[in-house]
Amino acid sequence: MHEYEDRGVCGQKARRPGLDRLMADARRKKFSVVLVAAFDRIARSTRNFLQIIDELDSLGIEFISRREGVATGGPMGRLFVTIISAIAELEKSLTVERVKSGMRRARLEGRQIGRSRLDVDRGQVVQDRRTGMSLTQVASKHSISRASVCRLMHEANRVVIGAEKPTAEILGQEFQL
Fold first, then answer.
1. pTM above 0.85?
2. Are residues 103 and 40 part of one domain?
3. Same domain, 84 and 43
4. How many domains does the chain have?
5. Which strand (E) or helix (H) includes residue 62?
6. Exposure check for the chain: N or C terminus, fewer CB within 10 A?
7. What CATH number should be reported for the domain holding residue 59?
8. Which domain holds residue 64?
9. Is the pLDDT of residue 20 over 60?
C-alpha cells in the first residue's frame, strides 16, 4: 500500500507530481485498486476526472471513492462516477461565480479588495536609499520590508521620457535624477 499526495498544488491542474507518480505506477501495474477519500481529491473537472478513470480502467485498475462509497467496477459504478464528478464540477463553478460576484459588488460599493496600500512616504524611502542607506536600514526606518524598498526603488527608476532633465515619478511626485 502506498499513499500519493499533492500538498500545496491546486487540484484543478491536470498535471500534479503526486497524480503523475500514481499514474506512472499504475502503468507499471504496481497495484490493482486506487482508493481515494473523495472524487474531488483526484480531479476538479469532469473531463480530467473521466480521462483518469478511463486510463485506470484500461489498465484493469479499479477506482473506489470512500466518501461516496462508489467503485468503478461495473456500469452502475461508472454512471455514479460520471454524475458525481459533474456535480462536483458544477459546485466548484458555482463557488467561483459567487466569489466573483461578491468581489464585483464590493468594488461597486467602494470597498477595497485585497491588501491596503503601503502607508509610507515613498519619496522619502527613495531618497534615503539613494543617499546610501542600506536596504535593511531603509526598511527598518520606514517599518516596511526590504522587498517593498526594492519595489519602490524600481518604480522610482522608471525614467519619464521626453523631459528636458531626466526625472522619475512616484505617485505624482517627480524627482530629478
1. no
2. yes
3. yes
4. 2
5. strand 62-65
6. N
7. 3.40.50.1390
8. 17-108
9. yes
H helix runs in the chain, sequence order: 17-27, 46-58, 75-108, 122-130, 135-142, 146-156
Model confidence pLDDT, tens digit, residues 91-132: 888 999 999 999 999 999 988 888 777 889 888 999 999 999
pLDDT at 27: 93
pLDDT in tens, 121-176: 888 999 999 999 999 999 999 999 999 999 988 888 875 444 555 555 555 555 55
| pLDDT over 70 (residue 28) | yes
CA-nearest of 65, 23, 73 to 48 is: 23
Please name which of 66, 59, 78 lies closest in space to residue 42, comparing C-alpha atoms: 66
Residue 56 identity (one-letter amino acid): L
| Cα dist from 113 to 17, 74, 145, whole Å | 33, 48, 21
- Statement to judge: residues 128 and 172 lie in one domain: yes
